[in-house]
Amino acid sequence: MQFNLADVIESVTAAVPDRVALTYEDQNLTYGELEAEANRTAHLFAEAGISHGDHVALFLKNSVEHVTSILGLIKIRAVPININYRYTQSELEYIFTNSDSVAVAVELPEHQRLLASLLDACPKIRTVFVVGETTDELRGAAERRSVAVVPFSDARDLSPAADFPARSGDDLYLLYTGGTTGYPKGVMWRHDDFFRKPLSGGNPYGDEPRRDLAEIASAAKEFPELAFLIAAPLMHGAALYSLFTFLILGARVVLKRDFDPKQVVEAIEKDRLQVILIVGDAMGLPLVDEMERRQGEVDYSSLFSITSGGAIWSTSVRDRMLAVKPELLLRDNFGASESGNDGALTIDESGTLRMAPSPNMILVDERLEEIPPGSDDVGYIARIGNVPLGYYKDEEKTARTFPTRADGTRLAVLGDMGTVESDGTIVFLGRGSQCINTGGEKVFAEEVEATLHGHPSIVDALVVPMPDERLGQLVAAVIATYPDSDELTLDAVQEHCRKSLAGYKIPRAIVLVDEVKRTPAGKADYRWATSMVSS
């Protein structure tokens, strides 16, 4: 059958209505209560004129309203647009206009003021949904443009019934990429493909996807009432995938307003967390710092696993987590907005990342021909199977990233590079766009970053190329250190890196900063890092 995400969530709700679905701060909502709130939100959108196929930008931080907006929009076959709330004015204007959003949901006063300054430049926006009080700036800008302002609180008086038209597996879900190396791109997923790939067919811990809604509902009844904390903001693809995955399982999703390591550690005991989802070292480092500080003070007995996705997660950070609790299961998910969940990476003693053989992942050369197992050739990691339709309004990038082979097979080729071993295992090298060519030798930024994160004084680091007349490029690192650490020198960095990296991979220059700039989800900002090296 063809799956629609709203149909799937409603089936789970019918199976476990009294189980807690969402914990946000000190508020608990059962599946039945979350369903009623999502239905009221759906009616709010519908009464304001939002209908099938309309795009609605969610300019929101984590909140109950953010969750009910996502669910409410897909219930009426509309399309949620994830917005990075730290975008600049020009980036926001781009994404509002590029996504053809006809409405925006917004909350914080500073976000409302930004939106007010952009309404004249975004003629397609006809409605603004406001969580909380509306600022004078937004109200005035909306009146000048004849844009309707709808308070979210109006939803309280609307019907909690799920009286919506039939939906389709062909309904669109549009997920915007992080945009850390350029403007974000909207990845177009069919609901059915979204369910089967990013959401693992509703069965992330099994081998076979669920066959129908009845099987999904039955599995939710049998699934233990586990608590999963999503540390990343919901505007990030990994967090969104996790939200849907855990709701489909019938689990309890725990959300925080912002990523605060202290709050996350306290929630382990308070909410009896079993699983924490982070985004690489940017969250893993401050989290393990706090776990070490609170060891013996906070009860970690319920915590079963820490899972990462979307960014590099170094061996040193994992080792420190295991030192706090040796029996932890650490899972490093490999995936992207354009591919969903590709599986779990394993890491060996030298820091090499490997992906077990999979029928949905191959290695191809520049002609898209498959590289045979056992070859030493470096190629592009390609995903096959349930891939997106392409990038929204960008045929050129769609053709480049989602090519079709001569046999009709569609691929997702994102620039991740690797080699393939004789048993089909793929060795992950890094993203080609972050590859540094120094005298003909290729250096993948992620490998050097993972090594730098193992230095006891380094709290975060990004690696970028620096121009060089003789070698073309040199390896440079932008580094932030712990406040109480000694001043870090280039010699000390190089000495540390020589223990595990070949000589040509060692940074030849460092720039020390107070804080390494990342997105709220912990994604690297390589444009910023490059500007720091070149300034």
UniProtKB/TrEMBL annotation:
Which segments constitute the AMP-dependent synthetase/ligase domain?
14-381
Cite a single Pfam family from the UniProt record.
AMP-binding_C
Give all residue intervals belonging to the AMP-binding enzyme C-terminal domain: 447-523
Q: Which domain of life is it from?
A: Bacteria
Kindly give the NCBIfam families that the UniProt entry links to this protein: PRK07798.1
Protein name (database record) = AMP-binding protein
- UniProt organism field: Rhodococcus chondri
Q: List the top taxonomic levels of the source.
A: Bacteria, Bacillati, Actinomycetota, Actinomycetes, Mycobacteriales
